[in-house]
Each structure stands twice: as structure tokens, then as C-alpha cells.
Design brief:
By secondary structure, the chain is α/β, with parallel strands linked by helices. It has 2 domains: 145 residues, Rossmann fold (3-Layer(aba) Sandwich); 64 residues, DNA polymerase, domain 1. The chain is 43% helix and 13% strand. It contains 9 helices and 8 strands. The strands form 2 sheets. The chain has a 6-stranded parallel β-sheet, sandwiched between helices. Helix 6 links the parallel strand 4 and strand 5. The longest helix has 15 residues. The radius of gyration is 17 Å and the shape is globular.
């Protein structure tokens, strides 16, 4: 189709609300080391730059910033636990239908997330979405993570040369899109703290059910 696009999606806060699951897993691994947990609001505020940065921030919050062995153990335990835990993770309303409709319309779909590849593939399989995403770039796929543009550019390269929209929810995603010179579609119900109008998005939406129509309207103008 003439207006087929590359549509590269962030995952957490964009397609799935995983903050409750991340919060539970964080508190579980901290408790196993005899350390107190965190409120969900605190954990949610630290999501977005990958697992290592999440634990950097959590340990700094407790004043434990110089214990590399503890951090490595917590991160390893978290990833093993989180990769198999889905009971507190949910798709945002309308995601399954929107993704299916966008693929059926001929668009080429990819994931670009700071979540490690293992948990990313696991959660996509769990929700029946993996078949729609021919390319997955996780937080451990390359040496660099978002907001460095390399992961997004890698996803685009794998999809092939055509107009691209990056669909995300956060300041990290906005910075990544700017660095890669790719227009951003901003989902407003994720983990963003900045006002939507301050993130230079080409498209702002709060309902995935509307996304196929919005993309169809935007595509000829890119």
C-alpha cells in the first residue's frame, strides 16, 4: 500500500500497564534481601530507562549507591521473577484490536523498549501479540538503550526503508524520537510526567481504539 508505514512501539506504558507487576517484583527481591520495599508511586516514577537504571534509582533512594554486588544480585533476581509474572500486567484497552488492524492495513510493526528481550518476548507471547511484531529491540539487544537513538534506528533498519512513526508514552520516548529524527505519537495514559504539549509529538492520543484511524489520517502528510 502506498501509505504503509513503519510503526515502532514502546512497550511499558504504551501497550501494557506493567507498573503494578514491576512494583511487586521489586518489592519481592528487596524483601528477599531483608530490605524494605517501595510505594508503587515511587517505583512508577523510576520506570523508563531500563532495569539497571531502575535499580540504580531504587538503591539511591535508599542510600545504597555503592554496592555493585547487591545491585547485580537484585537485577538478576528481578529479571528471573519478572520474566514469568503476568498476573498484575494488563494491556491498555483497545491494544489487541488496534495492533491487529494496523498490521492488516499493511503497516510494518516493531517493538523498541528498554525492557530486556527475554521479558519482552514473554509478555508479547502471553498477550498473543508476538505475531504482529516482526522486529523486537530490547534494552539488552544493543550496548546502548533509549534515549540513545541507536535502538530505534536499529528497529527501523530491520523493518526496511519507509516513513516511520515511533509510538511511546514518556519523556524517554520523546527524547529518543528527537534524537532519531522520527515523529512521535504520544500515548497519554502511560508513565509520562511532562505535559503532553511539551514533548513535541506529531500525534497525541489517549485511546488505542482511535489509533488506526489517526495513523491513516496522518500517513499521507508525513
Amino acid at each position: 500500500m502506498a501509505d504503509a508505514l513503519n510503526l515502532v512501539f514502546d512497550l511499558d506504558g504504551t501497550l501494557i500497564d506493567s507498573a503494578p507487576q514491576i512494583h511487586a517484583a521489586v518489592n519481592s527481591v528487596f524483601a528477599a534481601k531483608g530490605l524494605s520495599g517501595f510505594s508503587q508511586e515511587t517505583v512508577r516514577g523510576f520506570i523508563g530507562n531500563g532495569v539497571e537504571v531502575l535499580f540504580d534509582r531504587l538503591l539511591a533512594f535508599k542510600g545504597l549507591t555503592h554496592d555493585a554486588d547487591l545491585q547485580a544480585e537484585l537485577v538478576g533476581n528481578f529479571v528471573r521473577l519478572y520474566e514469568e509474572a503476568f498476573d498484575l500486567t494488563a494491556l491498555y484497552p483497545g491494544v489487541s484490536t488496534a495492533v491487529s488492524d494496523l498490521a492488516a492495513a499493511g503497516h510494518h510493526l516493531a517493538i523498541c523498549t528498554n525492557k530486556p528481550e527475554g521479558p519482552t518476548h514473554a509478555v508479547l507471547r502471553h498477550f498473543g501479540l508476538e505475531k504482529f511484531f516482526t522486529v523486537v529491540v530490547g534494552g539488552d539487544t544493543l550496548p546502548r538503550r533509549k534515549p540513545d537513538p541507536a535502538p530505534l534506528l536499529s528497529a527501523i533498519s530491520a523493518l526496511g526503508p519507509r516513513q516511520t512513526i515511533f509510538i511511546g508514552d514518556s519523556e524517554v520516548d520523546a527524547e529518543t524520537a528527537r534524537a532519531a529524527d522520527v515523529p512521535l505519537a504520544l500515548f497519554t495514559r502511560g508513565y509520562r510526567r511532562t505535559a503532553p504539549e511539551d514533548l513535541s509529538a506529531k500525534l497525541i492520543f489517549d485511546d488505542h481504539a482511535a489509533l488506526p484511524r489517526l495513523i491513516a489520517h496522518l500517513a499521507p502528510r508525513l
